Each structure stands twice: as C-alpha cells, then as structure tokens.
Amino acid sequence: MASRLRAFRKAMGDPERDEFARAIGVSKTTLASYERGESEPTASALLQYQKTYGANVQWLLSGEGEMTGLGAQVAKAPERDFVLMPQYDVRASAGNGLIAVNQMPTSETAFERKFLRDLGGSPDRCFLMWSTGDSMLPSIPDNSLMIVDASQTQVDHGRIYVFSVGNAVLVKRANWRMDGKLDLISDNLAGKYPVETFDANRVEDLVVVGRVIFVGHPP
C-alpha cells in the first residue's frame, strides 16, 4: 500500500508532505509512516483521502480499479459492475467488546462487484466497518478497515467472523471442537487473551454478523 500512497500524492500534484497531511487530517510524521510502509492508514484517514481528493479506496487498499474518479465511473457504468457498499459507525472489538452505538450506515463507498466476488463475498451483502484493539494481531491490526460479508452466517472452522453477543460486537476466529462447543479465539497469542467458549446449547445466543473477507489484505 505504501507505494500506492506515494503514487497517489504525486498524482495530486505532488504537494509537500505537511500540506497533504493537513488535508487528510493526520500529522506529517504519520503520513511519512504510511508512505514508508511502517504503518497503514486508519479507516478515517482512508475516507479522508476519498472525500478530499476523490481517491478510490479500493485502489488504495489493493491496487484494483482506477486510482481516482470511481464515483464518476459508477454513474456511467452498468449497474452490474459496481456496488455502493455501506459503512457502519460500529467498531468490532478485537479485544473485550464494544457497544454498537449506531446501526445506521454513515457513508457508502463504491467497489467493483468482481473484486468482492474474487474475495468470496456476495457483493450486495457486503459492508464496511473497522476494528479496534490488538487481540487479532497480526491478522487484523488495531483500527483496520474491514469488509464483512453479511451473507456468510454459517460458522466455518478457522475463519474470522464478526459476532454480536448481547450489546458487544467482537471480531474473532471460530474454532469448532470435537464435543460440539465453539471457541472464539484471538490470533494474538502473546496477548494471552482468554478463549471464549460457547456450549452447544448456547451457540444460538451468538448472532453472526458476517465473515471478514478483507482487512486491507485478505485475512
């Protein structure tokens, strides 16, 4: 992603780093870190690239599609080619869980349907949200933009899902046991996060929001 971020700034007239950083709401040091590949932009920073400069977030994340102007392309393209994917003001906690404060989408971002299908997703059921916490490192860094497929609610062993448990929203890896119990596990072994186990008769208490199919890179 770092090379695309550098290329994007150059394509925007190659403004000075401090000027560009102010425009997207980050410090010059943070922007430099993005462009050197030392860290990845937060969800809010990526959306600011889109709002301020018309960046194609899909291109920034994966290199797919055009660098800019996706909104104009969508207006001219056949409906089957692109989908406006909603983003929700909810954070899926890679930790101890956060309360979902707003279930209404706050924005929409255009993605190519083929891109989502290639990830194994159902384009019309995918949405954007972000994570917080470090329990899913290195698969999902803190404050990562995620694509979640809401059509995939059957829990498969070894995959990463967003779960709703009461008022908490969690992102965890599913692990089915031989005794029929379901473990929700964290990838960050160094963090010594406890495994959350659901007995067979409690699995129904879990609401599967969807499967995580993309986190800046496929998880």
Automatic annotation (TrEMBL):
Domain HTH cro/C1-type, by residue range, is: 19-60
Show the InterPro entries listed in the entry. Cro/C1-type_HTH (IPR001387), Lambda_DNA-bd_dom_sf (IPR010982), LexA-like (IPR039418), LexA/Signal_pep-like_sf (IPR036286), Peptidase_S24_S26A/B/C (IPR015927)
Can you tell me which residues the record assigns to a coiled coil?
A: none
Cleaved signal peptide residues: none
Q: Which Pfam families match?
A: HTH_3 (PF01381), Peptidase_S24 (PF00717)
Q: Which PANTHER family match?
A: FELS-1 PROPHAGE TRANSCRIPTIONAL REGULATOR, PTHR40661
Protein name as it appears in the record: Transcriptional regulator
Q: Which organism is it from?
A: Rhizobium oryziradicis
